[in-house]
Structure formats: C-alpha cells, structure tokens
Amino acid sequence: MTFTHLHVSTAFSAHYGVSWPDELAQVAAADGATALACTDRDGLYGTIKHLKACMAAGIDPIVGVDLAVFDDDGDHRTQLAGRVVVLARGHNNGAGYRALCRLVSDAHARTSGKAGGTVPVAVTRAELASRTLDPTTLKPVLTVLIGPDSDVGRAMGGRRYLRPRTLFKAWLEAMPAGTLVAEVVSQLTAPGAPRSTAHAVRMLKLAEEHHVPAVLTNAVRYCAEDGAATADVLDSARTLKSLPELAAEPLLQPNGQAWLKSADHMLQLGREIIHAAGYGTADLKQLMAQTEALADFCRIDPVSDMGWKQPVVPEASVIGISQDPHVELVQRCEAGISRRYPGVSGQARLVMRSRLEHELGIIRTLGFSSYFLTVAEVSRMILDMGVRAAARGSGASSLVNYLIDISQVDPLQHDLIFERFLSQDRATLPDIDIDVESAERHNVYRKIFDRFGAERVTLMSMQNGYRARGAVRDAGMALGMDDDDVGEIAKQLWRFSARKFREALAEKPELREFAGRVEQRGFAENQQLDLLVDLTERLDRLPRHISMHPCGVILGDANLLDRTPVQPSGLGLPMSQFDKHDMDPMGMLKLDVLGVRMQSAMAFAVREIIRIHPSKEEVVAAGSHTSGPDGAGPHYIAGNGHIDLNAVPLDDEATFDLIRSTHTLGCFQIESPGQRELIGKMAPRDFNDLIIDISLFRPGPMKSDMVRPFLEHRHGFAPEVYPHPDLKPVLQETHGVTVFHEQILKTFHVMTGCGLARADEFRRALGNEVLELKVEEYFRREARLKGYSPDVVDKVWGTLKAFGSFGFCKAHGAAFAVPTYQSAWLKAHHPEAFLAGLWEHDPGMYPKRLLVAEARRLGIPILPLDINRSQAEYRVERVADGPDTGKLGIRLSLNGIYGLSGAELKRIVAGQPYDSLADLRARSRLTKPSIKRLAQLGAFDSLHREAGGGANRADLVQHLQKLQATGNTRKAADVMEGQLSLPLGDVELRNVKPGLPAPTLVENVRAELDLMALDVSGHLMDSHRPMLDRLGVITADKLLGLRNGTEVLVAGVRIATQTPPMRGGRRVVFISIDDGTGCIDSVFFHEAQEQAGLLLFGTRLLLIRGTTRRTGPRGISLSASMAWDLSRVETLPFPESRVEITDVPHPLDGISRSLAITGMGG
Amino acid sequence: MGMFSESVDVTCSASGQPLKLHWAGRLYTVCAEPVRWYERRDWWAEERRAPLGSGPGLVDHEIWRVQVLPGHQDSAEPLTLDLTRHIGSGRWRLLRIHDALQPRTA
After folding, report:
1. Domain contains B73
2. For the residues A1103-1109, what does the mean pLDDT come to?
3. Which of A628, A753, A882, A1120 is the one with CA 20 to 30 A from A513?
4. In this predicted model, what pLDDT tens digit does every residue of B55-101 receive, in sequence order?
C-alpha cells in the first residue's frame, strides 16, 4: 500500500518548516509514494521547487497552502480562528492552481508588506468559499482540510461536546458542497493533548456524523525525527522567545513526531485511531482510501495545470503593435542599422547583415520576437524618463539588442557571440539586465507598472536564508543566552557557512578565543556553547523571509496573477512569491532592472558640471578636453555643457593614464584593493584591456592562477603558447590564456565543428559530474576525427574542463567596462563634480570618508558646513577666498548630520540665507540640539565671523549648551509674515562671551566623525602622527619608493577587509588601511593570521608590520607578518627599551556609536 | 505520584507492546491495554550536543502507561506505571508510579 502526505511544510515555510523540497520528495518516492503535497504556510514559496523535486523523483506533485482564517465572530481584520490547509485540484487546465494563486494573494492583500505590520496574513471564510469553485464551470477546484489547527481542532480540548460541532457546522454552511474534508492527525501526544489520538478520534467522529470525508495526514514539518530539534529552534526564532520560555507556556510543538512517516507508519497510526474510536477494519480502509482519493483529485500536471516551462510575454497589443511582432522586430532592426552603422559598406556590411539574419532567424524560430520588443519598450521608456540606463550581461552579445537600443555595446566590434545569449537549443527566455540610476529605480518600477498595467507586472522576490551571523544570533536566543555575549560571537563570524561552524572553530584564528571557551568552561556554559554551535549549524541556509529582489521585475500577459501569487512589498508594489529560480520553470519573463549607484553618481556629476560650467566652452576648458582641429570642441558635449557620456570615445589617453596610476578609488569595478593591484600589474592601454581586466578579476581566474601566465605573456616575460595553431585566432587577444566563455565556445567549435549553439550547451555542462563525461567523450572523439593529436586533445580538454565552469562571458565584461571607463573618464577630467557625485550617492565598497580623503589627496578643497552655503546635496563650488581662491571645491551637505531630521533640513534650505541665529531659529524652527550640533560642526563660523564677535567655536557651543540646559532661550521675537528683520547683524553671536580655548583639530575631527561619520578638517590619523613617528611608521605615499622586500611598519584606519577564495583553498585575508596619504593594501597569509588573531576582523585602527611586494610599475602592497591595535598604546612595539606611554587624544576616542567610517562589518 | 528513573526488564508482544515486567525482584503482568505517547524533553537543558543527524529521541521520548498486577496475586489492586524506552539501548526505565488508577482519557 502507498500513502500520500497531503499536509507538508517545506523549509520555505519560513521559521516553521525544516526540510527542503528535494529531501521530502526523495524520501517520499523511496518509500513508494506516487505523489506528495507541498502546503507551505502563508504562500506558495516552495511550490515550484516542489514541482521540480517531484518531477525529478518521478512522483506527482500536489500543491496547496496552509492559511490562517479570520474569525467571523471576532474583529474581522485582526482576530484569527485557526488555520486550514487548502489543496488545488489538478488536471483541470489550471483551474485549481489559478484559484489557489488568487486565494493566496487575497490572504496578503490587506497586509502592509512591512515588518511588524498589524494585519495578519489570512483569508476570510467568504473569500475562501468563493475561491473554491471555478468561476466559469462552478465545479469545485479547491479542497479545504479542517484539521487540528483549525478552530474546530482547537476546540477539541477538554470535554466540550458542543463547541467543535457548532464550529464544524459553520464551516459546512459556509463552504460549497464537496469542498470540505476533515483532516485527522495524531502525533501521538499525551492522551487528551492537542494532536493526540483522542483528538484525532473526535475529528473522525465529527466527520462521520456530518457525512464529510476524513483524510489522514501527519501535518509534516520535517523529513525525519532529526528535524524536530531544528523545528524547536525555528519556533523560538518565529516567536522571539527562548526555548525555556516557550516550554513553560507551553508553546513548543508537544513532541517531535511531525515527520514524514512511511506508509507503514501511517497505516499503523490509522489503525490506532480507528481502534481507539472503536471502529473496525472497513473504517480503516475507508480512511486510507479517502486520503488516496483526495490525493488523486489533486495530482497536478505541471504542464497543463501550471504552464511548466511555457514562456509567456505581454500581448503584442500592449506594446502598441498591431502587426506580426516578428515583422515589427525586423523593421526596427533595419531602422537601427542606419543609426548604429551609418554608411556601412563592403565586407563590414556583409558581416553585419549575415549576423543580423542569423540572430533574427533564431529569434523567429523560438518565437521570442515579442520578448525583444517588450524589453526594447522598457528600455525606451527608461531613456525617455531621462534616466541613465545601460544593458549588462550576455544581452550585449546580440546585434539585435544593439540595433533596437537595448544595449550600448557593439557585439561585432568586440567579437561577442550571440549563442552565448540565445540559441536554438535553449528554449528558455534569455536574461536581459538593465542598469539604471539607483536613485530612480523605484520610479522606473512604477512606470513599468503604469505602462504595462498592474495585472501584467509584479516584482520578483528573493529568499533570504540564514547565514552564520543570523544563525548564531537566533540559536543563542533559543538557548536563552545573553544578547551581548552572542553579539560578540556573531561579530567574529566572517563569511563562512553556518554549516561549517565547528570546523571553523578548529581552524580560524579569530575564533580561537571562542573555541577555547567551548573547551574550557564549566559544564553549564560549556554545554550551552556546544549546543550553540550545533544549533547554528542546523539553521544554516534555512529561509528566513522573502524580500523584494534588488532588481527583478516579472512581465507577463493579462493572466500573470493567475500564475503567481503576489503580496505587498515594502515598496507598496506587489511582489511575486516566486524567486529567480522559479522564473524559468514557470516560463516567466524576468527583467533585471538594477539600481546602480554609480549611474546615479555619474548622472549627478554631469548635472554639477553643467551647473558650474553652463556652456560648452567652459566645460571644454575645465575638463581640458581637446577642442579639435576646428576648435568646436568634442561632439559629445552639448552647447549647454551637457556631456553625453555614452558618446565619449573609448580611447581617451588621460583616462587610461589615470587607470594605470592605480589611483582609481571611486571608479566602477576597479577600486577594490585586488583590482588596484591587478591594474597596477596589467597597465591597461585600451578598452579591450579593461574588458580583460574585469573578466580576469573573478574568483575562478584568481583561484586557478590564470592571471600570472596572462601577465607574463602580456609583458613579454614568457613566450605565448598555443596548444595548436588553429586556436591562435581564438586565444590571441588574451595571449594564449583562456579567459572568456566566448573562447571556450570557439575552441569547441574549432576542434569539433559542433557549431556555436551546441558549444554553449557543452559549456553549460562543464562542471556537472554526469554531463561533463559525455561532453568529454564527444570532444575527444570528434577532435581526434578532425586530426588533432592526442597530446593537443588532452591539453585543450584540460583547459576547457578547468576554466569552462567559471570563465567569464566577454559580453558581461564589455558591458561592465563601459561604466568603468566612464567613471574613470569623469575622475580624470572633472574630479570635483565626480567626487561630489560619489559623496552624494556613495556607490562604492568603501566608507564615504575614504573618498573625502581622496579629495584631500587630490588637493580639492573640502569646504566646511555653512548654514548659508550648504545645501541638501554636496555641491561643487568655486572657492571665493583664502589660499585656494579660484579653485573648485566641494561644499559639505546638510544631509546626513546625526539627529537632523528631514523636515529640519528642508526648512533650513528653504529659508536660506540667514543673517543671525535668531533668524535661523525663527524661520527654520530647528531644535536646540540640532543648532548645537551645527555649531559643533562649524556651520555658524562664517556667520560668527561676520558678526564680529571675539569668541570662538567652543564658546559658541558652550553658550548654546547653556541655553539648551536652562531651557529659557528667549523665544525668538515673533516676526510677522512679510516683515523684514532689521539687518543689525547678529547681536547674539557678537555678544557670546569669549574665554574658552579654541577647539583643537582633534576635537573638531571628533565632532565631525561623531555627527557626520566623516573627517573633514583633517585626516583622523593626523593626531597619531607623533606617536607613529616614534614607532618609525612609513606613510603610503612613500611606499612606492621602497625596494621590493623591505620590512616596514604602516598604520591607518581600516577601510576594507576581504577574504577572496584562493588557490589551494587556504584562506587569505586582505586588509586595506588609509593613513591620509593613500591606501595601503596588506595581505595576511596563514601564519600572519595566526599572529594577528582577534585583530584580523575586530579592530578599527591598525599598526601592521610587513614586507613590501612590488606588484607592477605603479603597484606595491604589503605582505603582513604582524598587526597591533593602535588604540592599545601599551602593546605597541616602540623601539626604545623604556616605553613611555603617553595618552594621545584621538578623534575616535569616546565615540561609541557604530559609524560607517571603517571597513568592517558584513 | 512519585518520580523515578529505575531500570526495569520488560517483555513485549510482537508488535512492541509491554506484556510483563520484572521490577525490584518481582514479576508483574500487564492487565489492561497500555497507552502509548511521545513526550517532549527539555533537551537544551539535558543534552550537551544536538548536532544534525542526531536521529530520533532528542526532542521526545516514548512513554507507555501500563496497569500491572503482581504475578499470582489476583486480589491485589492494579498499579499504574509510566515506563519509557531508551531509544538507543532499547532499555526500559520506570518513570512514574501513580497512586491510584488514573481515568482513561482517550
């Protein structure tokens, strides 16, 4: 006999289910089941994975949901009356699945989409009833299971006879005939407890009384008994209570029997229940048969019921096309040719024409013309909004995309292969990703909803799973450990999977102290820490919640919401319950509209350039652009000074000079320590070099040591080697090293003649244990047939096998290289505007203060906060007085000051300028603490100077402090609307009593760090200088002059910590520090990590000893041997034998707020 | 009701139900149909480890409530005992002795 489980939560029931759909389907199939249900709580989060898992296990999927129901008698919007399971009936052309989707969306429709919303996810009984029948045929398409968690089941306790009956009858009256069954569950709890056999018996009898079929389930939460402990921890995480607290209430599952029991176990359970009910064998047979009969009703055909793998795109009419979409696409491509290739002729024309025909042929065969038109429509819509947009990803491989303006990269020029993007052999919708300005992303989303209609669009979601830090926090909470204790441990967990916690304890130096505690403490604490490790490992990767995917938008036809349930996102727009892995199986068109801060920063810079230089001549002069032979200036600068970045030629020498200097902080993709080292070694000369650089800087190539041979060949230190002359054209651009997917495709094709489409299929198979063997067999056979020697075949296969699975798609590299180049171009020609854009949009990997330091390094004046000059944004400003007169500087923004509210900010800016503090108080209505903070930051210094008082900033702050403390500020004289206050100057400021010493630089910098997380007046390391001199510390700007292998001490504030995967699997830690003269990148190998221990991840200010490693003509880094915490002066290695410890005041002293000023944290 | 944790020898039927038990040197016979359930343990307080793959028996244990009569003493009052079977060793322990006959709740 077989048994079908109809009530099963997978791990995608966040904070409830324990097991993955794969495990469940495999265990069920191994036990002989022919079907399995997935009934996640509150949604269809695991449904598509379940479908996939069932198909792989060769069983039929059943889909449903476990939903809360509002209490009809209580407050209809907040009070719940238990939960029910709802199953979709199958083999009805999707009528059941449609109803299920809509029902789930109903349950979420009233929620806010924000954490802590008060409206629960639930349906009313009326909604449930109305969805159970198909609206056209009026046949039942959903079945509702009334089980132990329903209001009926919950009323079974005690010896109440009437209450469950009344409630059950209410269900019978509310629901259409044939849609209700009773769910009988015994989890063998203590007699009389919920989920006991006694309760199961009562439910069974109730069903019998009312002639409602009863089915047996086990309300499964985990695959096997072992999952019960994990379920306990999840209960704790869900309810935010510790296990001891939950056990006392008692709110934990009563025991650990909610596992996917075998058919034999379930039959035995059924027998026990029937026996306890005093029924006979026939009744047992009936219970089991009814369960299987319901299962049969609910078997889902993935194809006919759920549209498995059938691509759906918006109707042509929606994008304004009345003719055949393919004809339309061909016409648009033709129109694009004259724009993209004006005057193309001869051989170039032939190549372009045949490529276009080739692409259009494949697109027509696959029926994807509407898809391309849809994406083009979105792309055009974004550009029409005046928002910067750039296609990224393999979409850049397509000439069609280039011609219809989806992509800005010419695939012919960069030799990109269409088959890497789309081919006859791949019937899934390809990915086209569009990068837009991050600040405009939400507007773009809203516009897409407007344009296509809310019924055709939804945001994609993503699953957020437990990672090590979150897991250890929740495990600690479950065990009732002290929050701070757990927080301390969590801080040390650095990018490893929670599943390897115990392994990491043994290996990682920063966990050594914790590992020691696990071993040495007394039994009680020790036991707790041991359990903490085990529970953390149990939580690893389990889904915690879904959230809006950072870029995915799903576009469909008018029936999209019949195919995916939606719920409100934090943004207010509806979000699908499906994630990126569900798109392909469900044939959903997903467009990645990614907000890229760099695009916002660049758009900001371009606007600042126009504002400061409002004509072409001025921009040309300011940016040292060539004015050309006719003196008209470059074509990409418009008359009003607007720069069309996309039109800037890709061969600007000044830009490549900047890149080669490695001073690339702030530049897209090439600012990280590792990238700065790589460009220092590689010294890119042209745009193709940039593409190669970006493609090389990937985990795969770095890990497998592709970079070294590439550089050796490039610089001519070693001769280029090709496995066979036939491959020279394929590998020449990368000096014989295979870097790009495109090269892998061509290699397959050259050596086997397989065609590029199949070559891409082969590439995808690389790295897959089973498929790779077949590919190898084919490759060896065909290459031998084509006459390649066994040696060559061996060698080439080795390369393909090694690089195939992680090489980089050149089209990606090319698409990435465009903003890289554009940002470097802006930095080379308009550094002030560019840095202002970076400060405003903070796009990079570093804390903002490092980019402020970069301005200081470039000699760009950083203009202090000024109540009359600072705006709500960073602004480029021409310096009016002082030593920097005439230079362009950057004025600090009023935005981002601790404690200053958005409303205050708006009022300040609206009221500018102010002639006195009284004027400011009267019109901006700032709070006293805000005024004091502005004074601390020097925002009134210029006003103060104009008032002519003799006091300094410290006196003013003290004056304001006193007013704040006594609370008796004389209320600003009420100025009548329209009445001008007399320009008397500021009497208050003039009369502030002098007396205090002026604040020191350290004090000013401390205030700036504390209130803005920026060090403006000076670099925060400046105050350490005397001590560093005594230590013999060398600065970053001097490093380049040192010999390779010199031992040095360096010191600075941490700006980045990275642990990239490395060849050989041994962890290497890169720590970068900034000392005010530049960045120093240091690498800690195994031994140095042992030496540094806790300092590796936990310290803001570091002293590092290491030896210099020259990495290229302009590159030098440090191989570290030891590190110290600079704030622990007594531990530092002073050269003198007598160590005089003087307390050096430092800007970071006493700041306990966690500030985004150092490169620590996730 | 007294709480115990004492070893007992139990003889079971083919389907795993207790039939007879040997306790403190005397033989008892199960005289009514036993009741079985699974009861939660405070494993986070009692266990030192809970690694993945611990298998069954961490979160709950199997309890059998049996009514027994001492062998050959027909006149004696039946005793109600709660027994538990250790999952790993299969050994039985006596958990509780109930003072009087408990009403069947099922």
Report:
1. yes
2. 93
3. A1120
4. 898 999 999 999 998 876 666 788 899 999 887 778 899 988 886 54
Looking at the domain assignment, is residue B104 inside a domain? no
User: Is A197 an 8 Å CB contact of chain B?
Assistant: yes
Could you give the angle at the alpha carbon of A136 between the alpha carbons of A130 and A137, nearest 5°?
A: 95
Asked whether A765 and A774 are in contact (CB, 8 A), the reply is yes
Provide ipTM, 2 decimals. 0.90
How confident is the prediction for chain A on average, in pLDDT?
89
Contacts of range A161-168, beta carbons closer than 8 Å, 24 or more positions apart: A164/A202, A164/A206, A165/A206, A165/A209, A168/A206, A168/A210
The pLDDT tens digits of the residues spanning A940-962 come to: 988 888 887 778 888 888 888 88
Most B CBs within 10 A among A199, A245, A255, hence the mutation to make, goes to A255
Residue carrying structure tokens 């598509």: A48
CB pairs under 8 A between A and B: 97
Cα–Cα distance for residue pair A84/A67, rounded to 1 Å = 6
pLDDT higher at A874 or A74: A874
Angstrom CA distances, A988 to A952, A972, A993, stand at: 13, 11, 10
Predicted confidence (pLDDT) at residue A1099 exceeds the cutoff of 60? yes
Domains in chain B: how many in total? Answer: 1
* Shortest CA gap A225–chain B (Å): 5
Contact B35 A191 (CB under 8 A): yes
Give the residue on B whose Cα is nearest the Cα of A197.
B106
Distance of alpha carbon A925 from alpha carbon A907, whole angstroms: 8
In a domain? residue B103: no
Of A849, A863, A884, the residue nearest A1021 (C-alpha): A849
Q: Specify the DSSP element, H or E, that contains A550.
A: strand A543-555
User: For residue A980, what pLDDT band results from cuts at 50, 70 and 90?
Assistant: very low
Higher pLDDT, A488 or A247: A247
Flag whether residue A498 sits within 8 Å of chain B, measured between CB atoms. Answer: no
- Which CA distances in Å does A1039 have to A857, A1043, A1050, A1052, A1084? 15, 9, 9, 14, 18
Name the pTM for this structure: 0.82
**Nearest residue of chain B to residue A226 (CA atoms):** B55
Cβ–Cβ below 8 Å for A530 and B49? yes
Q: Are A439 and A600 in contact (CB under 8 A)?
A: yes
Q: Answer whether A257 touches B (CB < 8 Å).
A: yes
Strands A862-863 and A574-576: unpaired
- Give residue A1107's pLDDT: 94
- Torsion A835-A836-A838-A839 (CA) sign: positive
Range of the domain at B13: 2-98
3-state secondary structure of A1086: helix
Q: How confident is the model over A660-693, as pLDDT tens digits?
A: 988 999 999 999 888 888 898 889 999 999 999 9
